[in-house]
Write a structure and sequence with these properties.
There is one protein chain. Helices cover 51% and strands 9% of the residues. It contains 27 helices and 12 strands. Strand 7 and strand 8 form a beta hairpin. Helix 2 runs parallel beside helix 4 and helix 12 packs across helix 13. The radius of gyration is 25 Å and the shape is globular.
């Protein structure tokens, strides 16, 4: 049985005497530093996430049918009632009813270990998505909303949140082609439905391993990969392997072009462009960026080009440092290749600052890190975690932990399911899934948000808790930033993103503008590398000794080494994404990649590779990958002006919640960034958005993690 707390005793010697140092984990820390208590098999199966029908895969069909019946009733209500606040409330109920099935299914199709559940969830996603596309071109439904927006008297009677949500729904109708004639509307629906299949096919393909005959690789490196009979299966880049041949082999084999997936990507980009032009946009990028802070592809490209110019000298110096390190380590070749970037940038940092992850891991047990997050949120926001034992059938793996998020005066805010540990067939990625959005229900009760955090950590053993390296710790803080954004966004309506996007954009966590969605998570990275914060929780799991300040300082300083090159790599990804979704180039996606890599990166393209086929963000972040860079600039502004002086300042925390987090997507992000309608967050941005953000952009190297999987 898991203990409520665990005590670790260490003997500490000082100049005078021997003293006894006792460390006590909180219940939350103890819960994550011990193996999960087994679920009582005699309990009644309550279904996934407590949804009774989802005790079996067949429950997805039942959930779909129930949602479709509710949809029909709500459409009838919206079309047959006079325009008013009820119209918007009905639309939001419609969105919520469909999202409850689609959001949950979107997670289950990738996160559940049972193939039958995954298949049933995938079918549910496609079916709900098809219904949504038809609703987006339902003329009668659109007319009911237009009657509201055209009636000045009714419109003036609505509160700002209700009015903005109404405008979001109308925006969704417009970009779906509601204004087109009947034949073009049918074409738009057909294209959208086709995109659902292409998105799914491409996303699945990005994660599939490549196989090669075992004899094709030197015998001494075969053990580094997964061997299946006479074949070797390579499912990743092995970018941190100290063996250069392993890195090179993994890069060339994992990124070897798949002809069917190349064709799928071509069809996907063609379909997106055709849809965008059909509904009146120059390109898919123009359509996707309408409503974001960047507004246009031209603004994004200017931002990326200016950032490249700003980084150019430092990027060149970083690559020279890596080349020197490669020569120093007696490499087979002195030419710096793409498979060298991650390994040698880490090697440079390790040498300069004596950074050995194994020296840090004992201080970053998972329980200690969760306790640190708990203490930080408690001091900053008055929010704490409470560990709850899941009921039978509520979770998909016995290793999943359930946290209730509770405010000291407001009570329960929502639930976080922590799926942190590796298991067969689980995606190797760190991400956040929305299962249920928060909204104010008709009875006055608030529908609590429910989310899943998925990491890929080693499970604890009977004698040792899960130990995180610095990169894993930072990832945990990053993803928890997304979760807390969901918990603290107390919006009246759950609909904060266009309805037609729900099946493609669940990974965007809270339904808000994409170029703001990453701000809360990136801001958490600043807390994760501040000694005042780390000192509160980083303790040796055996002795209870705190992590020495000198080690934290070295870790933070090391992030600045090769930071420009790491940032430039992200610029390259963002530029590639923009060009793919811009006006058709009449060139292959591989030829485009070659050109963009030469212009925006600096390391050579490797023949017979197709990195774009592993670029899974093209689905969830199509034409919006730049948002990681823009969000980092905004997060830097927030950190410097609010928390750099005191990361535990409660007044700052409350204002950050009230004026940024609490709005979800109910307020224009640019209004929050510029300080419009607020008295606190006021950053005077110049007329050029990209130039303004560059002022706050300080390139630092994130701890090692795969840009292919980091979402």
């Amino acid at each position: 049985m898991m203990l409520a707390c665990q005590r670790f005793v260490s003997v500490v010697r000082n100049s005078r005497t021997l003293s006894r140092h006792v460390t006590t984990w909180s219940p939350v820390g103890a819960a994550f530093n011990a193996q999960q208590r087994k679920v009582d098999l005699f309990q009644k199966n309550v279904g996934l996430f407590g949804v009774p029908g989802l005790s079996t895969p067949a429950g997805f069909e039942v959930a779909q049918q129930r949602a479709l019946r509710e949809t029909e009733q709500l459409v009838e209500t919206a079309c047959n009632n006079p325009p008013g606040a009820l119209t918007v409330e009905t639309f939001d109920q419609l969105s919520d009813s469909l999202c409850k099935v689609a959001d949950l299914a979107d997670f289950v199709k990738v996160g559940h270990p049972d193939p039958a559940f995954r298949d049933a969830a995938e079918k549910a996603c496609i079916n709900i998505g098809t219904v949504v596309e038809r609703l987006n071109t339902n003329v009668e439904l659109c007319r009911s909303l237009k009657n509201l927006l055209d009636n000045k008297e009714v419109l003036d009677s609505l509160d700002p949140d209700t009015r903005r949500v109404a405008e979001l729904f109308m925006f969704d109708f417009e970009i779906s082609g509601i204004h087109l004639d009947e034949s073009k509307v049918r074409k738009a629906v057909s294209l959208n439905v086709n995109l659902l299949d292409l998105n799914n096919e491409f996303l699945n393909g990005t994660h599939l391993p490549n196989r090669i005959e075992k004899t094709a690789l030197p015998e001494h490196i075969r053990h580094c990969f997964s061997i299946d009979g006479n074949s070797i299966q390579i499912g990743g880049l092995h970018a941190d392997s100290p063996d250069e041949l392993v890195r090179e082999a993994a890069y060339k084999i994992f990124l070897f072009p798949n002809s069917s997936l190349l064709l799928c990507l071509d069809d996907l980009l063609t379909c997106r462009n055709e849809l965008a032009k059909l509904v009146g946009y120059e390109s898919f990028a123009h359509r996707a960026l309408n409503g974001t802070m960047a507004k246009t592809p031209e603004t994004v490209m200017k931002f990326l080009e200016l950032l490249t110019d700003k980084l150019s000298d430092r990027t060149a110096k970083d690559f020279n440092l890596m080349r020197d390190m490669k020569m120093k380590m007696n490499s087979r070749s002195t030419v710096l290749m793409p498979w060298d970037h991650s390994y040698f940038s880490s090697a440079v940092r390790a040498e300069r600052y004596n950074i050995d992850p194994s020296l840090y891991s004992p201080y970053f047990s998972l329980g200690a890190c969760m306790e640190g997050l708990n203490m930080l949120f408690s001091q900053l926001l008055g929010v704490s975690f409470q560990n709850e034992q899941p009921m039978a059938g509520e979770v998909w793996s016995e290793e999943v932990r359930k946290l209730a998020v509770v405010h000291e005066t407001e009570g329960l805010l929502g639930y976080i399911y922590c799926d942190f540990f590796r298991r067969p067939d689980k995606p190797h990625q760190d991400c956040h899934f929305t299962i249920q959005g928060g909204r104010l229900k008709k009875d006055g009760e608030y529908q609590h948000p429910v989310v899943v955090l998925m990491l890929s950590l080693p499970p604890p053993t009977r004698s040792t808790p899960t130990l995180l390296n610095p990169g894993m710790m930072e990832n945990l803080f990053h993803e928890m930033g997304h979760a807390m954004h969901s918990m603290l966004g107390r919006t009246r309506y759950q609909h904060e993103f266009p309805l037609s996007l729900i099946t493609a954009l669940h990974m965007l966590r809270t339904r808000c503008s994409t170029d703001f969605a990453e701000v809360p998570s990136i801001l958490m990275e600043f807390f994760a590398t501040d000694y005042r914060v780390v000192n509160q929780f980083a303790r040796h799991y055996q002795t209870g000794q705190p992590l020495p300040k000198s080690m934290v300082s070295r870790l933070c300083e090391s992030k600045r080494i090769c930071g420009a090159a790491d940032t430039q790599l992200q610029v390259f990804y963002a530029a590639l994404d923009q060009v793919y979704h811009g006006k058709p180039q009449n060139r292959s996606t591989t030829d485009i990649l070659k050109k963009m890599q030469e212009k925006f990166y600096g390391l050579p393209y490797v023949p017979n590779t197709a990195w774009q086929l592993r670029f899974s963000h093209l689905i969830g972040y199509g034409a919006k990958y730049y948002s990681y860079l823009m969000s980092r600039a905004i997060a830097s502004m927030v950190w410097r002006q609010c928390f750099q002086k005191d990361p535990f300042n409660r007044d700052m925390g409350e204002r950050y919640r009230r004026e940024m987090l609490a709005h979800g997507g109910s307020k224009e992000p640019m209004l929050m960034v510029e300080g419009k309608d607020t008295h606190y967050f006021s950053w005077p941005l110049p007329s050029s958005l990209s130039l303004g953000f560059l002022h706050y952009f300080s390139p630092i190297s994130s701890f090692p993690r795969s840009p292919l999987l980091y979402v």
